[in-house]
Amino acid sequence: MKSPFLSIIFALLTISAFGQSHKIYGVLSGNNEVPPVVTSAAGSFVGTYDETTNTLDITVNFWGLADHTGMHIHEAPAGMNGGVIYNFGAAGGSAAVYNGAGIVLTDPQEVSLLADGLYINVHSSAYPGGEIRDQIKAIPVTAFDYTIDATLAPENEVPPSTCTGASGTASGCYSSANNLLIIEDLSFTLGSPFAGSPGAHIHDAPAGANGPIIPGGFLSNGDHALGNPGMLVGAVVLSDADEIDLLNGDLYFNVHSEQCPAGAVRDQINAVAIPPIPTMGQWGVGVLSLLLLIVGIVFIRKNKRQFNY
Hints:
17% of the residues lie in helices and 39% in strands. Helix 1 runs antiparallel to helix 4. It contains 4 helices and 18 strands. It has helices at 4-16, 107-114, 240-247, 280-302; strands at 21-28, 42-50, 55-63, 70-75, 84-87, 96-104, 118-123, 132-135, 137-140, 146-152, 167-175, 180-189, 200-204, 213-220, 230-237, 251-255, 265-268, 270-273.
């Protein structure tokens, strides 16, 4: 007969073994293709993955292609090409934003994902094998200890821009353990088309001053095909110095337009610390320890000389 004591342990270990959620990200580049491709096209993607449901939700944006003939998730590690496991059904112009929601992976595909063994590939007429690519990288949600947000406005520019009526918002998260900034949604409405170049960037300077674009902070070249209103995502690995500036409020988003090429809307990035929350595993271990203590005391009182489980 199975002991209630063992049943409790089994249930708690099951709770502690629940799958966790991950943030996923990547930066699309011709350098990642096999063999490498020389192109000015680029892009990025961000999203989430839930181990419990094997579900991947992802947003991809890219720009600078002459056209794109397709976009897929492939299975292979960096430096190798692999077969398609998901087709976004994407085809069209030089730039686009695509949302892939509710993509269900098999258990072997999940193993590949968590080992950086899946990648996103954007194809074009010039490069039918793929023009820009990156591996899908996954980091546990618990590794992110800050949320980030911004409200972009013309009056925040230095000097204030003449693009009255333009606006924007941004949201995302930051992992200090990985120096990783994820921009999950940078949305904007401009009074004129998105700038052909420069576009949208992260700059380094406090409020009231202008500063340079940080390394990796180039979020778009301003391809008009991205639309107006428009939306971007991005992922940037910050230097230690840029991390300090982020946490001090000294990095800012800047979106440019043809009417206001120096900047149409801007705001400092606001980073807010997330209070630590115990994981399911940590809760399970804590509750298990407490119940072991209680059950042990009860058993000792009932069986002072002999224990029967």
